[in-house]
Amino acid sequence: MYNNIFQFLNSAGTCDVNQAGQLFSLESTPSLLLYSYVPAVIIALSLVLFIYFKDRKNLISRALVLFTFFYSFWVLNILLQWISVPNKLILMAWQMTAFFEVGLCLSALHLFVAFYTKEHITKRLKFALVFITLVMVVLTPTYLNISSYDFESCEGILGYVWYFIYAFELILPFSILIAGFIKSKNPKYTERKKEIRIFSVALFICLLVFSISNLVGEYYQYYSLNLFGPLGLLAFVGFVTYLILNFKLFNIRIFSTQILVIFLNLAIVSLLLINNLVAIHLITVFTFVLAVFFGYLLIMSVKKEIEQKENLERLRLKLEESNINLETANEKLKGLDKLKTEFLSLASHQLRSPLTAIKGYASMVKDGDFGEVAPKAKEAVERIFESSQNLTIIVEDLLNVSKIESGGMKYEKANFDMSEIVKTTAEDLSIMAAKKNIKLSYSADSGNHNVNGDKEKLRQVVLNFIDNSIKYTKEGTIEVKLENKNDKVLVSVKDTGMGVSPEIMATLFQKFARGEGQKMNTGGSGLGLYLAKEIVDAHKGRVWVESPGMGLGSTFFIELDAVN
After folding, report:
1. Fewer CB within 10 Å, N- or C-terminus of the chain?
2. Closest C-alpha to 86, from 30, 149, 141, 17
3. In the 8-state DSSP scheme, what is residue 86?
4. Pairing assessment for the beta strands 476-485 and 438-444 based on DSSP bridges
């Protein structure tokens, strides 16, 4: 089985006695060799190596490098068969051909799988590829690979293993083509459908030209036909260039275009090195077809890019116009907002004086300062007094909002005990709660309740929370607590009222947000909670609400930093 090793050792002499002492000679080398082999290897390696160094971590680029290197080694091996002079070198090249051809096919299969999945190949496929490679390593020096060597023609006689190799070479291109079109229909690859199909066609053409040139050359014992094999690699390079241009594959569009132009130039220049008219005609036709095909693809790609740039330019102009309009509208809105704030401030100030007078005179009439008042008239005056009081609160809220928005809200901060305002406010409002049969309680722990802030502004926040609980609780209890938790002073107002839904909770502290509460109390402004949040935020604290849901009550919290 390993007789070929001894045949190799005994294969002394040279293929041509006139060239004794030389290793290589180009005298009997076909002129087409310089056209198909050398340019193919240079162009393919240039593109692939650039892709690899552009993105080494890319699985596809690594698989592409492996495939191209096997192709290049196969090409160099064939070159060695043509230009070598010593029989030992020629026989060695013939023996190595099987390994490189099988390696080329296996690397093509690996490249195809890596391209459409963009993932590492499965362990099962990796094992199969490694196993076949090892088998070829074992069979390379045996008579099953090269059964003998013809010293007259300087050619190896193929063994039985080549039947399997040629069958594999012929089946593989069609398998890749069919698999590519089937895989492209998978919903998983919908976005890459066209890309996968083009790549499958590219590999199909590359491998088919390679296989047919080998099969036909072996069948007719006319090995010059093998020289057309690398032309399939050039077609593959062209397709990869098209994918780079149209699908941004590897993101190297400019370089790939340069490679294609260089190839066409080399193809034209190489005609000067060929004397055979038939070969010149074949090369010219092939180059022309290739130039027309990929020239069309390049033109369409450039046209598409120009259209995209024109669309982007139109979009840019529209965006600039929209930005200008938005800026103008924004300036107008800022002006209107400023006018609104000024109007609220002015209106609030102007309403304060008449409201104070109405409230004062109504109080005096109610208390009998102007003489005895009939019961029905007294009831009406009491309603006037309550309404004026509510309106005064609304005007005060509007005035505070305008101050906050204009940056005019002033805070007179000092250290004080939070219990001073929480306890007194709870006691003051307990009478109002009792009128609605609501039990209002106050409790405090023994911790430090000192804070730094504006006492009157924070009193307004506490007042708002307790007052809201009274308004939106029909019956039950309200618990006001003052605690110290982790050096934070925490005020909580818990009621058994109407509760807050998660949707309303998200917007409860915004301006004019009242949620379902407006159904129970139509006299509010919807600004109380907004003002409470703004005041507490100015004290670097926070406010929030918790509620199990509608009808299950709620708890409002104020949290401030404790000071010693």
Report:
1. C
2. 17
3. B
4. parallel
Q: Check residue 275 and report its DSSP letter.
A: -
Which CATH number does 314-409 carry?
Answer: 1.10.287
Domain ranges for the chain: 3-275, 314-409, 414-561
For 414-561, CATH number out of 3.30.1330.60, 3.40.50.2300, 3.40.50.1010, 3.30.565.10 equals: 3.30.565.10
Residue with tokens 């020289």: 227
User: What is the C-alpha to C-alpha distance for residues 109 and 382, in angstroms, rounded to an integer?
Assistant: 94
Distance CA 377, CA 381 (A): 6
| Cα end-to-end distance, the chain, whole Å | 97
**Alpha-carbon gap, residue 229 to 223, rounded angstroms:** 11
Rg of the Cα trace of the chain? 45
Q: Which two tokens stand for residue 333?
A: 């809105």
Whether the predicted pLDDT of 522 surpasses 50: no
Find out whether 54 and 61 touch, Cβ atoms under 8 Å.
yes
Distance of CA 377 to the CA centre of its chain: 73
The one-character DSSP state at 24 is B
Confidence of residue 9 (pLDDT cuts 50, 70, 90): very low
DSSP string for 483-494: EEETTEEEEEEE
> Residue 351 carries which side chain, given as an amino acid letter?
L
* Cα–Cα nearest to 114, from 301, 212, 249: 249
Give the whole-angstrom CA distance, residue 401 versus residue 345: 9
What share of residues in the chain are helix, strand, coil (percent, to 5)?
70, 10, 20
pLDDT tens digits for 445-499?
A: 988 999 999 998 899 899 889 988 998 898 899 999 999 998 999 999 999 998 8
What is the rounded average pLDDT of the residues 136-149? 88
CA dihedral 176→182→183→185, nearest 10 degrees, is 150
d(CA 93, CA 76): 9
Burial class (CB in 10 A: 0-12, 13-18, 19+), 68: buried
Q: Is the pLDDT of residue 94 over 80?
A: yes
**230: nearest Cα among 66, 5, 68:** 68
Among 60-74, 136-150, 282-296, 368-382, which stretch is predicted with the lowest mean pLDDT?
282-296
**336-340, 519-523, 544-548: which is most confident:** 544-548
* 427 vs 438: CA distance, rounded Å: 13
The torsion angles phi and psi of 34, rounded to 5 degrees, stand at -70, -25
pTM of the model: 0.48
What is the CATH number assigned to the segment(s) 3-275? 1.20.1070
Tokens of 544: 């929030």
Chain mean position to CA 473 = 50
Helix (H, G, I), strand (E, B) or coil at 276: coil
